[in-house]
Amino acid sequence: MTSTDFILPHLTQHKDRLYAKGLKALFADDPMRFDHFSTRCGDLLLDYSKNFIDAESRQALLDLAKKADLGRHIDAMFKGEYINNTENRQVLHTALRAKPDNIPQDYRHQIETTKQKMFSYARQLEQSQLKGATGKAINTVVNIGVGGSDLGPNMAVNALKASHSSPTRFLFVSNIDPVQISRALDQCDPETTLFIICSKTFTTLETLANAHAARQWFLDKTGGDESAIQHHFLAVSTNLEAAAEFGIPEQNLFPMWDWVGGRYSLWSAIGLSICLAVGAEGFQAFLDGGEAMDDHFKNTPFDQNIPVLMALLGIWYSDYFQCQSQALISYDQNLEQFPDYLQQLDMESNGKSVQKSGSPVDYATGAILWGGVGTNTQHSFHQLIHQGSHLIPVDFLVAAQSNCPVANQHQDLFSNCLAQSQAMMQGRSEQEVLEEMLSNGSDEEQARFLAKHRAIAGNKPSNTLMYKQLTPFVLGQLIALYEHKIYAQSVVWNINAFDQWGVELGKQLSKTISSVISNPEQASQQDSSTQGLIQYYLKNR
Ligand code: F6P
After folding, report:
1. SS3 per residue for 404-427
2. In the structure, how many helices (H) and strands (E) does the chain have?
3. Which atom of ligand 1 is nearest to the CA of 145?
4. Would you say the CB of residue 282 lies under 6 angstroms from ligand 1?
5. How far apart are alpha carbons 12 and 51 in whole angstroms?
6. Of ligand 1's atoms, which has the minimum distance to the CA of residue 198?
7. Whose CA is closest to 82, among 499, 500, 503?
8. At what angle do helices 9-21 and 55-67 cross, to 10 degrees?
9. CA-to-CA distance for 397 and 464, rounded, in angstroms?
10. What does the pLDDT profile of the chain (541 residues) look like in tens digits?
11. 444 is catalytic
12. Is the CB of 143 under 6 A from ligand 1?
């Protein structure tokens, strides 16, 4: 496939026409625009009316999905075809959240058994029955993992604070930087701390280093009592042998499988910390939310299908409007870590420049994704969104209800969210600014000068996702929505969203560099920049 297969002249004409017309005019033309360009999955609402879209261009974009045979590709994923073609793997994270009857027969038993084991730990923790070696109840859980074995659980545990089923404290350690593990351990009491070592491969440098540091700290604090380890260390991995070798007893091992990608793994036992935080019922509700979005993705016509519409809009902006980046701004403090989580999900999945066949792409694929939490972002980067020279489409996320109501603050939060998407869409012309300044009695010369600086062009697109309140079910829906959006985009772009070969080279080189630091006589084989920096390190460490 080349760009000529999907950067199509009639879509380019739609783009030019709609951009020239402008979002404000599109609203003026159609008083029912919200009804025509919004859709739902249960209570989750997507308003995509503030985009450069009308009925004709939406149809032309939907035709792109049809041309890519998206429906067949969706079936292929749910049926367990080997769609991760560079690793020859199935992609079945959806099975982890399916009702037992919908789980492929071959995997049903292992999925259900593992889930029940997670639930059993969660119930014990909730009832203060999960005890350490000295009989004291566990009150602190430390998740050690990185990438998909950290970002999803970390984000979800913090997002769902309002649904926590016990006062247990959760800490997350991911970085090889010893500062993080040291700070976490400083807060822990070895008698009441449970460590969960999460690593799909159980070979990841960061996770193994932190796990060894935690184990050593634990032994130092408990007088070297190896037999106490079984009460304080659990592990989740596909590589159960390596976890056992590390010293985790068999009964403390939770399996996962190669058909679950790291960044899609929070639905598996990698999400054990989420299950411990929100309890068995809360975790089941989270899985149910994911499954509700799966049903929507599989069964809803594409013109009302939230992940498909969002995928096509993302492609529209990347490939037709040449937007390099897209932002996600949640007006929901609970979702503070959602952009970090989504960066891995999206950028590790669709940051590819060869097609599934190995041919290079000559069109833009995955966007640079970034964002933050509103209203804080209004006081940091919104200036660039409103008046900068880049076109940055935004996804806004906002709840109708706060789970921590204080006075009228939630209404103010909500109003600010709507005001931002409205300001992006309508802007404010130089003439409007001038008239306002003159009517307020400003000096005319000064007003004419300042109006140029104060005018806001508008015509900036956004989506708004709304839900009643952030519950485990809603978080499950939101995560599955973005997973499917990313998959749908990869199908249209004809790339494999499920491998991540790009991260391998840096891992290999870091081993070589570490060996050069230990044996400086090998340094001459390195480039001069690397040599110079190693020299500085050796002199100053
Ligand atoms: O960063 C690369 C990566 O392989 C991610 O895809 C993965 O989530 C992370 O490392 C952690 O891997 P593991 O769970 O095997 O330790």
Report:
1. CCCCCHHHHHHHHHHHHHHHHHHC
2. 22, 11
3. 16
4. no
5. 15
6. 14
7. 499
8. 150
9. 6
10. 898 888 999 999 999 999 999 999 999 999 999 999 999 999 999 999 999 999 999 999 999 999 999 999 999 999 999 999 999 999 999 999 999 999 999 999 999 999 999 999 999 999 999 999 999 999 999 999 999 999 999 999 999 999 999 999 999 999 999 999 999 999 999 999 999 999 999 999 999 999 999 999 999 999 998 999 999 999 999 999 999 999 999 999 999 999 999 999 999 999 999 999 999 999 999 999 999 999 999 999 999 999 999 999 999 999 999 999 999 999 999 999 999 999 999 999 999 999 999 999 999 999 999 999 999 999 999 999 999 999 999 999 999 999 999 999 999 999 999 999 999 999 999 999 999 999 999 999 999 999 999 999 999 999 999 999 999 999 999 999 999 999 999 999 999 999 999 999 999 999 999 999 999 999 889 999 999 999 999 999 9
11. no
12. no
Distance set, CA 471 to CA 149, 296, 371, 519 (Å): 22, 19, 22, 53
Query: Which helix (H) or strand (E) element contains residue 396?
Result: strand 394-399
CA distance 351 to 367: 8
Tokens of 83: 């769609």
Whether the link from the prior residue into 375 is cis, omega within 30° of 0, is yes
Atom 5, ligand 1: which residue's CA is nearest?
Answer: 147
What's the token pair of residue 158? 């913090």
Rounded CA-CA distance 363/441 in Å is 52
Compute the distance from residue 202 Cα to the ligand 1 centre, in Å.
Answer: 9
List, in sequence order, the alpha helices (H) in 300-368. 306-315, 338-343, 349-350
Residue for token digits 């199935």? 90
Name the nearest CA neighbour of 15 among 320, 424, 393: 320
Residues whose CB is less than 8 angstroms from the CB of residue 45 and which lie 6 or more positions away in sequence, other chains included: 38, 39, 465, 466, 467
Using DSSP, state whether 363 is helix, strand or coil. coil
Cβ distance 303 to 62 under 8 Å?
yes
Q: Which residues of 185-221 are buried (b: 16+ CB within 10 A; e: fewer)?
A: beebebbbbbbbbbbbebebebbbebbebbbebbeeb
Which tokens belong to 264? 């899609």
Residue 494: CB atoms within 10 A of its CB come to: 19
